[in-house]
Amino acid sequence: MTETLTIHTLPTTDSRLATQDFDHLEFGKVFSDHMFVVDYRDGEWQDAQILPYGDLSVSPANSALHYGQAIFEGMKAYHQADGGVALFRPLDNWARLNASAERMCMPTIPEELFMQGLRELIKLDAGWVPTFAGSSLYIRPFMFATDGFIGVRPSEAYRFVIFTCPVGLYYNKPLRVRFEQKYVRSAEGGAGYAKNAGNYGAAMYPTKLAQQEGYNQLIWTDASEHRYVEESGTMNAIFVVDGRVITPALSTSILDGITRRSVLELAHDMGLTVEERKVSSREIIEALKAGKLEEAFGVGTAATIAPIAVIGYEGQDYEVPATRPDGFSKRVSAALDAIRSGEGADVHNWMVAV
Ligand SMILES: *Cc1c(COP(=O)(O)O)cnc(C)c1O
């Protein structure tokens, strides 16, 4: 890749912006006008382009479709109080994309290519960044194999794409979840720490079974004993027990969430005790029964914080007390909102202007 990257831009002649209803945005259904596309061939990234958002043509033999060489990221840009647009911790997403790429035998992306593609795309579609409280521009970078070859080996060609979706305030209806004791999302030594497509595909069936029993999501437990908490659906799980913030320690089976990382850093800032360690389902239920479980919630980019209202364990449902207005999850969520909108001090330098 050359030092100064030229991204060829083909602006749309048919913008859909004027016809969008920003008051009724459904998550993931509305796409901004453009997408960033770059191809990996002959050992290098080439032909970086910004094109009108639209269908892609692929070989039916590509190894993303057959063998799952496909990874993605999820991140957000926010309208700023001063009128600009800023990204939340984009270099963390870039680094994680490359960690996922390595695990799936895919090429890594240089920082400049990722950041320049992202910046130019968002500048061009700046009109799509919603401005009302709680809204944002959801950004979906992803990479997939493009070789037309059905043999099992890492593809030699790949495509990296970024598209964006304006999203409204995420309504966090408190969740009903249950500990999963039969299926697993990922195992130690597997690819659970990578954001690869197959992790999601394999989680859908066990999740569907739980939904048929009236739950919204599963709390995944470890693959060998089904004793320790892994994640809550596609979010990291955090508990507040007796004033302490407790979360499963990272491992090869847990995704290193950027929201998790941010929430823990803010907990430290607030002077709270943070424990990253093994957390057993029994410990959580015992704390709940003893009246010591103050909060349970999932954390991730889409929802930020998703409170848990009910936890199913060994056939029994347990109610988590409603979050108090001064509870940790409320305070941390307000602190994150302030940083992301540019209204609060960004002491950790998490925001990057577009
Ligand atoms: C993306 C993801 C998360 C949350 O990560 P964030 O960076 O906070 O969005 C948590 N768990 C899984 C399995 C994920 O794929």
Automatic annotation (TrEMBL):
Keyword Chaperone applies: no
GO biological process, one term: branched-chain amino acid biosynthetic process
GO MF annotation: an example: branched-chain-amino-acid transaminase activity
Modified sites of kind N6-(pyridoxal phosphate)lysine: 195
Keyword Protein biosynthesis attributed: no
EC number(s) on file: 2.6.1.42
UniProt cofactor(s): pyridoxal 5'-phosphate
Primary role: Acts on leucine, isoleucine and valine.
Family: Belongs to the class-IV pyridoxal-phosphate-dependent aminotransferase family.
Descriptive protein name: branched-chain-amino-acid transaminase
Organism field: Hymenobacter cyanobacteriorum
